[in-house]
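[job 0417] fold request received: Deaminase
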Amino acid sequence: MGLIHIDLFTTLDGVAQAPGGPDEDAGGGFTFGGWQAPLMDSVVGGQVEAGMQDLDALLLGRRTYEIFAAYWPQQKGTIAELFNRVPKYVASRQPHALPWDNSMQLGPDIAAGLHELRARHEGLHVIGSLDFVQTLFADRLFDRLTLWVYPILLGSGKKVFAEGVVPANLTLLEPVIASPKGAVLQRYELAAGTPGVGVMGNGGPEV
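[job 0417] inference complete; emitting structure tokens
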């Protein structure tokens, strides 16, 4: 069965809204669209490309799909070629025009649709798509979580972990990587069970 990866860029206070540009998403009066741009560097770029090596399908929310469909077909380079080539699946409750080549809408039963996609693809990557991501978190319908955490605080905006996230354990897959401009890459895998609790004692935690 294939894996569902969630790939997000987030500020230190968890804001993941509109990292790519001023016109990406001004919902809620958000005024910091494009906050990621001043903090990009070669380490971030290289690791983003490396993280896409297993990608053989994109799984996107409607709004992110519209942004990508208007941008990537006009671009060149490794990621553009990959995104334009692979199948694109759009999670939306309403029918929508899907102008980007090789695009199709995910059915209304998200869990069943993802089960079918896991059997068809090795690496399904969800990028952005914050509303859809909340559904994946709430229903534990993901396998890997990759976060680029940037050293800024915005105070408001759509968050990575909004209301509805269920308690879950995650396993860090590799040592964190820090970029010259202070972004930190963290790659996690969803683990079984829910977080444990204990009492901190002089000799360490007692559980």
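[job 0417] notes: Residues 94 and 108 are 9 Å apart (CA to CA). The chain has a mean pLDDT of 93.
[job 0417] exit 0
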